[in-house]
Amino acid sequence: MKETKIRLQKIIADAGLASRRKAEQLIIDGKVTVNGRKATLGDKADPKKDRIVVGGKKLNEIAVKGKYYIMLHKPRGFVTTMSDEMGRKCVAELIKDIPARLFPVGRLDRDSEGLLLMTNDGEFANGIAHPSCHLNKTYRVTVRPSLSDEQLEKLKESIVINGRKTIPAEVFVIERQEGRVVLQFVLQDGKNRQIRNICEQAGLEVARLKRVAIGQVKLGMLPQGKWRDLTADEIKKLTGKQTENKNRW
After folding, report:
1. If you ran DSSP here, which 8-state letter would residue 201 be given?
2. What gap in Å lies between CA 32 and CA 52, rounded to an integer?
3. Burial 102-123, CB ≥16 within 10 A → b, else e
4. What is the pLDDT of residues 20-49, one digit of tens each?
5. What pairs with residue 205 in β-bridges?
6. 33 Cβ partners below 8 Å, 6+ apart?
7. What is the pLDDT of residues 121-161, one digit of tens each?
8. How far apart are CA 93 and CA 72, in angstroms?
9. Burial (Cβ within 10 Å: 0-12, 13-18, ≥19) of residue 247
């Protein structure tokens, strides 16, 4: 017969409660029981038949029933991590009401804001991150003090980040005001701090950087610090596949 039992750390991780490494620590710390017996590292269980308790709660009471695909409007001042050793504010604080362990898809640096995708579906995240997905990322960027034609052309040039040349950005002027210019950047690859590095090399100061779209999925009017479920149509636009978004219990 086919083995139906699975290692406990995998069951806990698949439920979205912790990474496998943290799940192992929960077991070592004696916080996991199977059918009333304290579990040890290496134990296996059948999640459909066995009574698995993590931190005093039954697994089936706290496990994710379906996958989560959300967009978050990340404010400035938050780091794109689920925890931070330096005690900085993390995006995890903004999704505390979701009963699952989500992780960010891609990043926005601490001083940037806007559209951040989060999920507990690793296949979905890896698919979006893969270069073959060809998802452009669109940003609204305010620079100071002004912008010459020569600087605008320089913003469209490829630069080297971590030893690799970037794909040239598409850059458009949206609005000009005294002492500042609002630009739209469209990136194909989106390397870490790419826009800030481009602007610095052009002699410009970035006053505000906001991601407003990933592919055809737009941030829209979602308030800062708030999140919402992606629609089935938005998921299809991101992946090319129809995915059922079972976010609610």
Report:
1. H
2. 7
3. bbbbbbbebebbbbbbbbbbee
4. 788 899 999 999 999 999 999 999 998 778
5. 144
6. 39, 52, 53
7. 888 888 887 666 778 999 999 999 999 999 999 999 998 88
8. 12
9. middle
d(CA 204, CA 171): 14
CA angle 243, 246, 249 (to 5 degrees): 175
**Max CA-CA distance within the chain?**
75
Q: Are strands 205-214 and 113-119 parallel, antiparallel or unpaired?
A: parallel
Distance CA 44, CA 158 (A): 51
Q: How far apart are CA 235 and CA 70, in angstroms?
A: 10
DSSP secondary structure code for residue 175 in this structure? E
Per-residue pLDDT band for 249 (boundaries 50, 70, 90) equals very low
- Catalytic residue numbers, as ranges: 109
Amino acid letter for position 92? A
DSSP string for residues in 136-168: -EEEEEEEES---HHHHHHHTS--EETTEEPPP
In this prediction the pTM is: 0.72
Does residue 194 contact residue 202 with C-beta atoms inside 8 Å? no
For residue 120, give both structure tokens: 């507990």
CB neighbours of residue 32 within 10 Å: 25
